[in-house]
Protein 1
Amino acid sequence: MKTLLEICCPSIDTALIAEKFGADRIELCTKLEVGGTTPSAKEIRLAKEKLKIPVHVLIRCRDGNFVYDEDDLQEMLDEIEFCKSNKIDGVVFGTLLSNGEIDLQKMKMIVETAKPMNITFHKAFDECTNPFEALEQLIELGVHRILTSGQQPTALQGIDVLKQLHEQANGRILILPGGSVRSENVLQIVDNSGVSEIHSAAGVLQNENIFEQEILAMKKLLS
């Protein structure tokens, strides 16, 4: 079965390259070197205008931890409203309490604001103290997918947890493995976890040739 390939892109230019070389969906961000933050309004508009494939926008007002105060929350809610008004396909976000549990109160507000866009809980999930309990909470909230490396530094190292999460989800939410996913390990991750979608930056911070070659290679393997 074909596996959907989502490519993380830190600019509209890289997003256009990713689409050209076979990406099925784009996660658009900026400042990928610090884990990604929300792209500019201009980039978001251009993404909707120029890309034909679905675009999910990272909503993260700053780098650092995922514990947000009220000002942070309002900034992210405003960014989500902007995405919705520009008919973006989906948004990617996550917020935690200082004890490593999901901040359910803030998440409820964010999810309600984001509807009817597609909703992904990002790699803040890998800092949750109990990922299996967090999975059930995110299903209850109405989140569509979880971007995770199985609580390990890379998705390859987290295969066992990714498989457990996928099996527990049982079609109620999608598990989206991400974290150093490349052509040399993508099939191992997909085959051993059982997932139907995969996330990769495809070496975008190295150089354009590697980026293009990685997308082509992964697309061929996953088709």
Protein 2
Amino acid sequence: MKTIVRGKNVEVPERVREYAERKLRRLERMLDDRSDAIVELSNEQHRSADDAHIAEVTLVINGQTVRSHAAGASYQAALDEVVDKVERRTVDHREKPRLRARPIEERQLLRRIADGTPGPARERRIVKTKRFAIEPMFEEDAISRMEELGHRFFVYVSAETEQVAIVYQRDDGDYGVIEPVVGGTYTRGRGRRNAAG
């Protein structure tokens, strides 16, 4: 484990630096060579003499950060307390259950998302059925109602033809109307309203 001891706006005496390094050696049995420990010491004048010396320890373990701090009447007292706290947190960190291995399907999905490749097509199905009362109205009223609802289409009964119709907003911003004809002939264009011809 690599240990760095530094002062935050204070000069760290050599005896305190050695004390910090010695205290942190207790953690080496739980950590590997890739772990880093940073000890930062500071002094807060506005605190009482009993807790004016601050020690903060930050450990980086397998890319995860474990941090704690303590205050004491001396740097040694603060270090004693903070190393105890960090040791408990390190034990908790090591005993945490590792994330479960992802199932093969999940790994394949994540790989496809990362690669930007489409997955196998799944069969589409109806997942919701909506029933509602529709009332006769003119196209303008249907458009207003559609806009009130914030939808891109609206199903209504045409007051002119007394048939079901669907008004929709086109990509160009204009509107279109679909007038289904059951068992009749197909009509083209807006100008031809009846099924004859």
Protein 3
Amino acid sequence: MKEEIQSWLNSGADAFSGILLLDKYCPDQIFVRLMKLNPTKNRSKIIRKLAELANLDYEIKPKKAKRETFPRTPFREEFPFLASPGCPIELKALVTDKFSSFYRYRDLHEKLFDCTSAEECADVAAALLDNYHENRMIYAELEYYKKHGSLLGKHPVFDHYRKMKALHNLTIKELVLKQGKLQHNIWRIESEIKRGDKPHLLEDRERRLQEKKAELAEVNRLLE
């Protein structure tokens, strides 16, 4: 824990990364929930709490607010293997998701300062943290392949592609059963989205819906 928090402090103590560390190490969940209402505004409190948990002396330096931008190094130059014909299709799919995730993160970050209630702020902060975590997972996959030339395979997209490949090994009877199950799953997820009762889960539900629809389309193709 101490090394991880020290590394976070040394890298600039990003507020949203700090929230992830609080989730992991802070036993006071009421404090964690309060910090999630506005991570940027609560950055100093997050730093103090994590430094206290790790028994570290740390002087808080003001961090000027700035609009997040893409790295100066062009993305395709940072990860040149993406242009290679041998680049795994999973990584190419993740690149599309990464850019979408970046824009959602930027929009949610701006929306956070326009919240008119604590409930709205909590929902936006939860969605922002989920999006930030998604972005970091994608970056970790790309960095790992860049360094090792092999797949890390921890992002959910790899599980999705494994499921798609597994469909080709099913019998006709198994495909028919799978078809019915997928149709039910799609109906259930669409019902959850229409209810709109948990806005912070919307992005995850939409992702799962697209995955199930893609699986169903492949099942239908195989049956035809």
